[in-house]
Amino acid sequence: ETMREDGLEMPVIIVTAQGEIATAVAAMKLGASDYILRPFDLETLEIAIDRALSVSRLKIENQFLREEVTPGGKHLVGESEAIRKVKQAIAQVAPEKATTLIVGETGTGKELVAQSIHQLSQRNKSLFVAVNCAAIPAEMLESELFGHERGAFTGAIKERIGKFELADGGTLFLDEVTEMPLALQAKLLRALQEGVIERLGSNRPLAVDIRVLAATNLDPLQAVQDGKLREDLYYRLNVFRIDLPPLRERRDDIGLLARHFLQPRHLQLDTAALQALQEYAWPGNVRELANILERAAIMCSGDTITLRQLPADLLQKAADITPASPANDSEAELPKLPDAVTSLEKSLIQAALRQTQGNKSKAAKLLGISERSLWYKLGTYGNTETSAPGDTNQS
Known about the structure:
Layout: H1 2-5, E1 13-16, H2 21-29, E2 34-37, H3 42-68, H4 81-93, E3 100-103, H5 110-119, E4 128-132, H6 138-146, H7 163-166, E5 171-175, H8 182-194, E6 196-197, E7 206-207, E8 211-216, H9 220-225, H10 231-237, E9 240-243, H11 254-262, E10 268-269, H12 271-279, H13 285-299, E11 304-305, H14 312-318, H15 337-355, H16 360-367, H17 371-381
């Protein structure tokens, strides 16, 4: 008890006479690892020491694993119809025990959806454990998931619990499940069906009470046809499915997302910068948006992010994209593609010239084009609106 109060985390073995068993039991309740009755032989003591050290190692490793667990409490940002449907699906499935398959492009927020399901479930007092199946070498993934016994393979010098055991009572999120080897998918299927696992090097079944959420950036049915996903596992995972829209299909949320990412830094976007973000295609989706805004925030010396802080390639690609169409085609007539591109290009040029006080050389650099190209575009569009006052020789 004194050792515990002093914060000494070390295994303790109680050696006691027959009449002192009650004392030994009380000591074990306080954290002792084992007790031995006197008289004893050295073999009994050696077994007790090995057992105590094994338990101690597992406790330490468990603590390290807990530090790797992704924290919960996050939420999806957006008010578009597409993201509203996702939020509704999360609310529907969270109270259930059903395995759920989350499908979406890279960077759309699949892990965030899984976290939201966990936080809204009755398992939210237990751990949410995430495993990226694509980030772990195939030969190590089985041990990572199911754990191993000492000597199970070369280099296994101590036993190790896996993520299934770590997530017991909580939620296990398997990201990029289609990257898991097919042989391991069979073992995963058994764990899902029977609720038991076996560590590598052991034939002793361990019961686990977990909810499994899985995600992929592939079309799961196509992955089945391509031999990347077992068909029986697909049906077991696809009890409930959530499809995440790419950011280019929810452009109305870009402003909300930008405010969400910039709020901790007390920054905002100006109109031209927001327009450029809304016209970009976002192949990396929300993750790419977060990274670009973080970079822009670092470069920003004031309280407002402008085109100057956005990457030149983003501005160039945004100028080549048609503005997003209305949610209902009957609400407005679609602009012609050349007209839409011209309008956006004019807006970006005007914004760049305003920010550089009409300096053509700096504006061209900001836009990611040559000064010669800028002069040509100014001649094509007309220079009266884009020139800054007093611009006589700013090139």
